[in-house]
Amino acid sequence: MLILNLKLYYSPTFAIEENKYNKDLLAQLHHIEKKIHEGAHLDMQQIYPEGFVFMSVLYGLTWCTLIESLPNDHEIGRRGLNEIKWSLDQIQSKEGKLPFDVSLPLAYGAFYTGWSNYLLGSYLSIQNAFDRNTPDIDKFQNTCEQVKSVLSSTNSPFLESYQNAAWPADMTLCMASLALHDKLFTPKYQTVLNTWIADAEERTDQYGLIPHATNTIDGSPLESARGSSQSLILNFLIEIDSSYAMSKFSLYESLFLDKRVGLPGIREYPQGSKGEGDIDSGPVIWDIGGAASIVGQRTMAKYGRNQIAIGIRNSIESFGLSIHVGHEKKYLFGALPIADVFIAWANSIEATEKQRLASEGNWRVRFQLISAAFLILFSLILVRSQ
Hints:
Layout: H1 2-7, H2 23-37, H3 40-45, H4 51-67, H5 75-91, H6 94-97, H7 109-125, H8 134-152, H9 168-184, H10 190-201, E1 213-214, E2 221-223, H11 227-240, H12 242-256, E3 257-260, E4 263-266, E5 284-285, E6 288-289, H13 290-302, H14 306-319, E7 323-325, E8 328-330, H15 337-347, H16 365-385
Helix pairs in contact: 2-4, 2-15, 4-5, 4-7, 4-15, 5-7, 7-8, 7-9, 8-9, 9-11, 11-12, 11-13, 13-14, 13-15
């Protein structure tokens, strides 16, 4: 109980050199690097349908965020660029593409296309323009054009990830890669992005949010918004249209933000409804979703809810059993590498000391009071049992 409470005061450690990067995040990457080069992404594919790609791409994106403020000739910057390129090679390999259908209108589907192209664009964005590889640029731009072309020939703004299966969270990544294109190169997709936002708004669920799953023919909702997918959507929707994203974030916050024993978390299902956990949500305990909360930590920080983000972050530090051994940091004793990589990506919101989240007030009070009451009760039970 003491350890749980102490970890609620966690704050990341930053390097004291001029480039004040997050040392704890680097330690997380050290652990993940070791595991993924040993084949952890192959292992995760056996328990999660997109485990290989998800682990590879989030590993690469975390490196992107950590080193974007570092000079390209910095030792960690060079190492990061190599690891991102390795991640891209993994995703583009035969094993990376194997679960996905090349015959879909958008080859390999929205999930594979969105995540792989967004990572490629992020890789290009952290390089100096003259260092960018021409084949990488061509591949990124060609994929953006493919997304635009397929979108223009369908009646749904949410393209399939698999045959007869569409999840808007996947499509959000495709559109975010188009928005990223317009930041890196001559803008050309704003009309496409505006149209997509308008079409998505016409297909929101009963809560006014982008649905969890949709009909592949017309994009109408099949399953209402859920915390896991909504946390993910909002991380990228803000890059596509920040005003629209803020309006959806307000709904998300009112429907999914909750507390248990005084600690914040993100529900998997909206207030007033319940459901079971599945492969998308991870464990759901007291209605709080594992994936929803880990990704929700990053969401809250991106939308300026720093105290909530810190509360979720430190709850994960506490109940996620974080341990720091040598140059490595891991969670759940390193038993589930895909959890480590999701947590690392969430923590990358504080990649440098300038991005450190500032907390106001003591949000821990209720949990501390509950802990004290538990300890008193436990002590009384021990005394009476003598």
